[in-house]
Amino acid sequence: MANKRRTSSRTSSPKRAMPKQTVRRPKRVRRRTTGRVRRFATEQPLSAGGLRSRGGRLSLPPLAWPQVIALVWVFALLGLLSFLSWRSDFYVYAENVRVEGLQYTTREAVYQAALIEGYHVFFLDPQVIARRVEALPYVREATVRVGLPASVVIRVSERQPVVRWFWGREEYWVDEEGVILPPLNISPPPMALMDPEGLAVWQGAEGPRRLNPRLIAVLLTVRDAFPQIQRAYYERATGLRLLLPFRGRDVQIIWGDVLIVNERLQRLQEVWSQMQRSGEGYTLIDVTTPDQVIVRR
Q: 285 with 293: CB under 8 angstroms?
């Protein structure tokens, strides 16, 4: 019995409770999202400019005042350009073009060469127009001024023909620089140069279609001293040969090359003065030899 009691006393005694360990879970942090972020979370961007779509509709991000002002300026500029593009006053026609400084070239030729018929004034380049006009044979230089609403002023500086050049049966006119020009239906230059062999053509940097400028300079110098000389020849045998009228007949002046001018002109003037004083004419005067003049009666 004693053992039984002892046993029962053991079993009936309350068990000693173990302390409970509490495990604290980390507090879940909820991120606060605004309604705007949640609204655009499912939207798909359409472009890099900020244009987005939702439910088949397009929406724009809000604009600041600088952007609004910039858009106003852009639309105003587009409206102005549209207005100017439709106005007929800004298109160039013949009545809007004034050409100045013409003497040998016609106004119609300048207008056709400019290629500005029907163009808007904003698309005209004065330098390009000037180069087109300068391609005309008698135009040395051209300047162009473009104004609004549609006015074009073309100022032309022309070449002056001073010598008629005969190459075989072909006739051309030549200016002081040796530029070859087509003949016109006006009074021709007084000096005529006969060049049957084409020796006067100068192979310079400006191209073959130009006469030797030194030859032209000699002709003009002799022409200033002797206005009665109106015909000259350029040949391989004698070089430059001039015809000087004296008492109803021509005196042949053998000039030779075109390198020396002043000395030969001085000797020719001395012989000419002697001829006028004595009244005795010569058929030939050769001034090519230095320090002397060879004459032939």
A: yes
Percent of the chain past pLDDT 70, that is, above it, reads: 70
Cα 268 from Cα 253, distance rounded (Å): 8
More confident residue, 183 or 72: 183
- List, for residues 110-157, the tens digit of each pLDDT value: 999 999 998 988 889 999 999 999 999 999 999 999 998 889 999 999
C-alpha 146: how far from chain center: 15
> Would you mind telling me the total number of residues written for the chain in this entry?
297
Which of 90, 103, 88 minimizes the C-alpha distance to 151?
90
- How far is Cα 249 from Cα 8, in angstroms, rounded to an integer? 179
Best-predicted range by mean pLDDT (14-28, 79-93, 274-288): 274-288
Average pLDDT over residues 30-35: 53
The domain locations on the chain are: 89-158, 163-296
Q: Is 135 exposed, middle or buried (0-12, 13-18, 19+ CB in 10 A)?
A: exposed
Instruction: Give domain 89-158's CATH architecture.
Output: Roll (3.10)
Whole-model pTM? 0.69
In terms of Cα–Cα distance, which of 92, 83, 88, 104 is closest to 161? 104
Average model confidence (pLDDT) across the chain: 81
The residue written with tokens 């000389």 in the block is 229
The span from the CA of 177 to the CA of 209, in Å, is: 12
Contact assessment for residue 266 and residue 276, using Cβ atoms and an 8 Å cutoff:
no
3-class DSSP state of 234: strand
- 144/121 Cα distance (integer angstroms): 13
Q: Which fold has domain 163-296?
A: Rossmann fold (3.40.50)
Residues 6+ away with beta carbon under 8 Å from 156: 99, 100, 101, 102, 105, 110, 133, 139, 141, 142
